[in-house]
Fold these 3 entries.
Entry 1:
Amino acid sequence: MRTAGVIVGVLVVLSVVVGVNVYVARRLLQWSTLVFPGINPTVFVVVYVVLAASFLVGYAPLPVPVRRTAAWIGGHWTGVFVYLLMFFVVAEVVVAAGRLVKIVPTPVPVGVRFGAGLVVVLSVAGLAAYGVFNAHRVTHVSYDVQLDEALPSSMTIVLVSDLHLGSVGSERNLARVVEEINRLEPDLVCLAGDIFNDDYRAIRDPDAVGRSLSSIRSTYGVYAALGNHDSGMPGATTFDEMVDLLERSDIRVLKDEYETIDDRIVLVGRLDWSPIGNTNGLARQDTASFMSTVDTDLPVVVMDHNPATIGQYGAETDLILAGHTHRGQMFPANLITGAMYAVDYGYYRKDADSPQVVVTSGAGTWAIPMRIGSRSEVVSITLH
């Protein structure tokens, strides 16, 4: 019965995916024939299928150069597709409303169909160009956090999450992120997961990445927790290589572990609760049991990648640093993350007995190398 349910679910998803692609392809072809009357429908369909399939090819067990090229094409096309779908639907609704109030004649004139399609195509092209530009523009966001137990002197933590090294443009983006981190002259740097994008081998130049990470300057060092993508893809065996690259770059990876920082705070790094791939036997401990072993004589700061877990912590925890959500990365996905999480971005505290939480939208992108309605950011948090 359970297997049958899974099969039905997969078929429903496939039907929806195929259906929306057929809809977008038809609308694009109809508009394209108005612009280029001699266009060959067969060639159009072949090109469209290649574009649509390239996203999946980017995750197939194929040679790295093939997957890298497919990921570049598929990532950009998927972003374009999302907005083509949205704008074509909006255009349909507007034209239908115009017909209803007798502004648009029936049947719809060719000029109206051409104009509606032109508005859609130009709007999507503009949004896609902005999304690519915005994704690689690293911004700085700052928070002041007053701990319940005041520190003898303030401490500045720089929080970075979701670099997704190995994804499109991630290695060039890393240089900008490191430059921003060093400009802030932090006491402590915390990398809160999804440092890698599933596959270590997708990184073009691991040595260059290591040099960039090693160049991060911080008074008390750089620490990392692992996210769901840091375990690699299902069946992958590159987890140890990921961790080794971090450790060779002078980054201390906390795998359900903690360290005392300058006798002022205790820093905890949690394993992610839903790793995608193989973590070589490492598994997240029960939060209550694990936290009972943590020294709470000093303020406790926890790096836990996914903010879905913040309800597992109580008064023993002072501050949680998280990422994962990307703040939706592309509108309207931010409406979904906003509904899914108690906090999908920014500062949050449920009540006086709960930890304070800071969730970053991340410094990189996943799957689609665009950001619309969110930003790539480096976060500084001043603890008092």
Entry 2:
Amino acid sequence: MAIRVLIADDSISIRELLRWQLERLGYEVVGEAENATQVVSLFRSLKPDVVTLDLVMPNEDEMDALTAFRLMKKEAPRVPILVLSAVPFNKTRELFMEEGAFEYVVKPFGRNLKDALRKLERAFPELKPQGLLGRVRKSH
């Protein structure tokens, strides 16, 4: 069974890129959100295995990415949230990591995203993607 991922990013091109990369590696993208309010709503209805969360998204209904992050962690503390952001500041990274982010990946992500996904597989062996990473591991 593929890992079910919810993508949250206000940029359609980043969402498309993430979807392409994740599906190529065997993950199943179950939903996409373009703001924090949408990601919380989809998180509650879709119950994904993993969430990717952009930090800089439009605020709707007084909800920003940090508020959404905290709500998701409170409701499902075991669901890993990969923070993907163009914000390279150590204080921001430290805040999210201290609050339970699985990983903080700075855009453009490239190899850093693959490293984060490998870390995810090691930390949650019950979540096995069905694509490239899984096949590479089995062949060694």
Entry 3:
Amino acid sequence: MRILELCHYSARICGVWNRVREEASLLTKRGYQVRVFSSNLVKGSKDIAPSEGEFKGVKIRRFKAKKLGGESFMYWDFEKDALKYNPDIIVAHSYRQIHTTAALKIGKKIGAKVFLVTHAPFVENDLTRSFFAKFFVRLYDWFIGPFSLNKFDKIIAITKWEIPYLERLGAMRNKMEYIPNGIPKVFFQLKKGKEENKILFLGRISPIKNLEVLIKAFSLIKNKKIKLEIVGPTEKDYLIELENLIRKFKLEKRISFSPPIFDLREKINKIDSAKIFILPSKSEAMPQALIEAMARGKIVIGSDNRGIKELIKNGENGYLFRVGDPEELAKKIDLGLKGNKKMKKEAKKSVGRFNWGNIIKKIEGLLV
């Protein structure tokens, strides 16, 4: 069986790409022929990725793309190559995108099944979107979404909270499946590394992550010796803002920035080295790094947006604080630093269902 996976990006760090990479490699290992098509852009930078690539037996073909607005809304012409490959199944990632509607057209031409993986694009109160983005989203949801969703053979939601949104758009419940993103089983298996006297954020260093709230909270906590490490790819203008804020609170000796980590075991060691993992985002769909930290039995603290609330039960397997509230976050950090063995065990137990070994079986079940 030939499978074609379509996604925006296939280089460096991207949540959607994390899903596609693992899904494609595991399906290949199970005997399927899988290819990935994407744009040649690199998320969060002006870099251009090579036109071809390969990982774990999966070939990648990247196409010249033109951004039409925002970070991910773009056009790239892959139809000719898709028709030549002639897949049995097309898996199109991300709702409200040109390549997902193009997948329907291609699927109809060659008689292929087409699955949509939505990736939870429903931002609470549109709080992170520009005026243009809000206008486009509403236009799409009024005139395109309701007429295209049910043309997909399956609609795969990665979170439970987005299902009511899809139903309001007219998606039929019997077409929908809940299959979340997974994490490699090694996160549950490796022996724990040495813990240091520090707090960790791991992810993209961009405005949506609301790191200024974390820095303000860090200036308020009782423990003045603990350090904060912020790890991930940076957006330069935002990094300048954060560095200015750090200087304002005189925290230069206690807060450091580190580059993104691509090696899996190195990433696990970094998570293990922290006492607390914090995700202060304005909005999240299904935060991969948070699940990874919970799988390593960390005390986790997250803002109370929908994506994080689906994972953290306040006071049971982690702590929640109000989005944008540094004072409440500081209190939760103080609480977390006291330690809580039961909470750590509950954190690990609660994310066991995200083991990729379980997830790939659900995906494969849709292919037959």
